[in-house]
Design brief:
CATH architecture of the largest domain in chain B: 3-Layer(aba) Sandwich
Oligomer: heterodimer
Largest interface: A-B, 42 and 45 residues
Order of helices and strands of chain B: HEEEHEHEHHHEHEHEEHEHEEHEHE
Radius of gyration of chain B: 20 Å
Number of domains of chain A: 1
Strand content of chain B: 25-35%
Radius of gyration of chain A: 22 Å
CATH topology of the largest domain in chain B: Rossmann fold
Helix content of chain B: 25-40%
Number of strands of chain A: 0
Strand order of the largest sheet of chain B: 5-6-7-3-8-9-14
Largest sheet of chain B: 7 strands, mixed
Number of strands of chain B: 14
Shape of chain A: globular
Number of helices of chain B: 12
Amino acid sequence: MSSTVETGEKRAAGGGEAAQLNWSLWTRQTLAVMRLELGKNFLGRRALLLYMLAGLPLAVLGAAAALVQESDGAFKSFAELGVTYSIIYGALILRTLLFFGCAWVFMNLFRGEVVDRSLHYYFLAPVRREVLVVGKYLSGLLATATLFGITTLGSFALAYFGFFPAESVEYVFDGPGLGQALTYAGITVLACVGYGAVFLIVGLYFRNPVIPALLIYGWEWLNFLLPPLLKKLSVIHYLNSLVPIPPPAGPFAVLAEPTPAWISVPSLLVFTALTLLLAGLHIRRQEISYAGE
Amino acid sequence: MTTRTTNAERMIVFEGVSKFYGEILGVNRINLAIAPGITSLVGPNGSGKTTLMNLMTGLLRPTRGTISVLGTSPHDPEKLFRKVGYCSQFDSFPPGMTGREFIEFYLSVHGYTRGEVRDLTQAALERVSMQDAAGRKVAGYSKGMRQRIRLAQSLAHNPSVLILDEPLNGLDPMARAEIIRLFQSLAAEGLYLVISSHILHEVDMMSDSVVLMHNGYVVAEGDVHGVRGEIEEHPMQILVRCDRPQVLAARLFEHEHTIEARIHDDRRGLFVRTRRPDDFYLLLNRLVTENNLKVESVAPADDDLNAVYQYLIVSEGGRVS
């Protein structure tokens, strides 16, 4: 077939040279997959729910701050604000909104394409299926980490500057506030890394991933009731170990020593790497059959 | 290198391939060697054609047996799809894309540079005459346009093997003739084209060889010319959807190969029974132009090839020469 450009087959030829170039090829392919997936994650019809989840804390805190300003009254003492924000972050942002946002995005990376009946286009391209897993995962991670990162920093800013503007300037710029805000943002990114891997694999293995997602949600929420050993079989345990101001444990909590950051962070990363490896093995053998979807 | 290996690298080879969906048979004990040129897989719906194509492209894994496409396993997509393009029957697209974006995106996944992607996309669009509509959203395309844009996507990377599942579905007579010419030119360039159809008449005029399938088995295979004579024993029924079927019927009866013409109950179509489908299609193109008819679709309405299969199995032992 005549063509002015080199065919894919010729490009793949070349023995040892081609083998050496594979990393470069895989990188290009990963970036190409990410480009499309980022478009879907940020601009696709499924992105609407993600924006709603990520925007909710900002809307609530923004509205609350506006009401407090109008009523011209103090909300609580500034000293309690750190703990209040820690509760808001842990219960609302981390355990609920980010959890379901990651579930929505990562479970749909492959599952959504099966529902849309478009996954076969990827499977019919000369790309290792593991590259697809990495490209899709990274796109999901970038989308969720960006949006929930903004949520985290935005909600922190609203919680402090919205209620105690004068004290907050000093606390953030001359005190520990900025470090705390960045730590929360880092935890958010790590949460997206960990939950993203979990939900990627759930989306691959389950035809209806909603039930497993709810079971995981229950497990993560009830983590405070679990004995110390079982606590470690969760993502939230490692994330809680990193928060700068721990929220109150509550009356029924089973207390356990927080895992140090030098163990928590690598543990989550190793867990993620193993999960992606498992996803890669699964996708290598996946067949395309849209029947019954 | 052994002769066997050399042949495997020049052919698409199925060796004892079976595929079961649980307890349901997809295909069974398939042994095939497909050479360059146009090979048609023909059989009624559910005969196993799509399963065979999905096995060939790694979308399905065989329960038993091995498949080799020019020496490459279907389970090595990185190598396979440098030389294979597959236009599947799944009429679905990633949401929100224009025709051009659809082709460009999947070319970029191949690892091509932006310039290469642009050039290959343009060439593919020109091959299927979709340049003018390439900037529109695929969601707004007609069925025929969607068929053509999928075809463009499957051949954009200049594969050596093109696998096409019911590629003529939904095309109007003009587009059908144009696409058949494209297939013939690709075959003349030395490509392997594997085309499926549930209508033997639809593909026999362009095929070098046919594989007849029924209930998951290959019931006959061989040179298409051997099959053609047998087909002429069996008049074919074609449904033409058009605005003035009575005009078309009157004109068709002027030609001796029209055995029967019956207007559809909704008066928007005409069932035509003919002994010479090739001549009928040529005649139809002429009559449409001469009478300014608006044709919505032309589709064979006679899916039952069992009679031909039975004839072939009994008379030729499953091989036509």
